[in-house]
Amino acid sequence: MWWSASVGGWVFFVEEAVGLLWRLFAFRLWPEACGGSDCRRLCFVAVRWLWFFLRLWARACIAVFSALVAAFGGGCGCSGGATSAGIIAKAGPGAQLSPSQIASQLPADTLVRNPNASEMLDRMLRFLASHSILTCTVVDLPSDSRAVQVGDRRSYDSYGLAPVAKYFVSNQDGVSLAPQLCLIQDKVFNVPNYSTRYELKGAVLEGGIPFERVYGTHAFEYPGKDPRFNEVFNKAMINHTTLVLNKIFQSSYKGFERVQTLVDVGGGLGVTLNLITSKYPHIKGINFDLPHVIRHAPPYPGVEHVGGDMFKSVPKGDAIFMKWILHDWSDDHCVKLLKNCHKALPDNGKIIVVDGIIPVMPDSSSTTKVIFQLDLQMMTQHGGKERTQQEFLALATGAGFSGIRLECFACNMWVMEFYK
C-alpha cells in the first residue's frame, strides 16, 4: 500500500522535477525539436500548466500526510494511545467517537488552553474521512436534546477507523507505521523553500547528492549531529523492522534455522537481532553499526554490539543479515561492502538481504509505486537506489558470490540470499 512508502523527498521531487523539465523542454529542447514560434508557445503553455497542476497535487499530498501525522502520529511526541486514532482504537472494534469525545481524552488541560480543540479535530478528521482513512457517520440528536448546538445543526459527526487505519495504530506488538509518518514529515526533509534547498536541479545539472548539498554531510552522519532527529529516525526504523520481521516469521522462510552466528550489518540499536534471537534462541547475534549508533544500543540477551565501519571490515559469522542497507548506497559502495562480507563468511556462508526489487518495466500497481517512490528518496537523500533482480545479481557476483535466491516476499520487500 502506498501509505507505507518512505517518501520524504517525494513531494519536493515532483515540484522540482517538473520545474526542471519546464526549463529544459520549454526553453531548450522542444523549441529546437519542433521549430517555429507557435510550437514554442504551445510547448511553453502545456508544460507550464502541467507544472501548475502537479504543484497543486503535491500540496494536496502534503496536506494528507500532515493530517495523518496529527491524527496518528501525535505530533511524533505522543504514544499511540494519545492520538485521535489511538483513542478511537482503544474504544474497541467498530467504535465510533465524536470529536468532543476524542477531545475529552486528550491531556487534561487541552480544552482549557484551547476551547476550540473539538472543532479543530472535527475538521482534520473529516478530511481524513474524505480520503477513506477514517469512516464518518452523521448522528442525529434527540429532539428533546438540550446539548449546545452549533447554529441550528441537530446532528454531529462520529468517526471510526477505516480498514487502512489499522496500519497506523499500535498492534499487539506495540508498533505501527505512524512513526514512519513522523519521519516522512520531519522538518529535516520538509524545510521551507525545499524546492531550492534540496538542490535537486543543481544535483541533476552538476552532480552530487541533494541532501549533502543542503546539509553538508551524509544522511547517515546527520543523525549523530541532531539527537532529536536521531530519535525520530530510530523509532521509525524499529517499528518498520518489527512489522517486516514478524511477516517474515509468519512466512515459509526457514533461512535462520541453521545459522549459529548472525551478524546484522547496519543493525541500528539491535532491535532486529533481538527479534531474531528471541525467535531462534540458538543464534548468537552480533549487532554491527557506526560507533555513535552502538553507543545508545540497549543490552539484549544473546546479542553483542560492535561498532565499526562496514566499508573497512565486517565481523565474522556464518551468516550476515542486511535490511534496507544496499539500497542506501551506490553500486561501487555496495560491491565494496559485499566484498567485506564475503571475506567474513565461511565457504558455506550467506548474506540474508531484505530489500525491495523494482520491475524491469514500470506498472501502476501499488507495490511498484511504493518502490519507485522509495527509489527517488534514495537518490535525493543517500545517493543510493532501488534495484532490479538482475542488478542485485550483478552486485553479488561482482563481489565474489556465486548467485542469489529469492526466498519470500513480505511487506513489499523481498528476502534474498546471496550464497558463496
TrEMBL record:
UniProt entry tagged with the keyword Cell cycle: no
Q: Which PANTHER family match?
A: O-METHYLTRANSFERASE
Read off the Gene3D superfamilies from this record: Vaccinia Virus protein VP39, Winged helix-like DNA-binding domain superfamily/Winged helix DNA-binding domain
Q: Which family does it belong to?
A: Belongs to the class I-like SAM-binding methyltransferase superfamily. Cation-independent O-methyltransferase family. COMT subfamily.
Looking up PROSITE patterns in the UniProt record yields: SAM_OMT_II
Q: Which InterPro entries match?
A: COMT-like, COMT_C, COMT_dimerisation, SAM-dependent_MTases_sf, WH-like_DNA-bd_sf, WH_DNA-bd_sf
Q: Which residues form the O-methyltransferase dimerisation domain?
A: 94-170
- What organism is listed for this UniProt entry? Rhododendron williamsianum
Q: Where is the O-methyltransferase C-terminal domain?
A: 198-402
Reading the lineage from the top rank, the first entry is Eukaryota
Keywords, alphabetical: Methyltransferase, S-adenosyl-L-methionine, Transferase
Give the molecular function GO annotations: O-methyltransferase activity; protein dimerization activity; S-adenosylmethionine-dependent methyltransferase activity
The name under which this protein is listed is O-methyltransferase domain-containing protein
Gene Ontology biological process terms in this record: methylation
Q: Does the keyword S-adenosyl-L-methionine apply?
A: yes
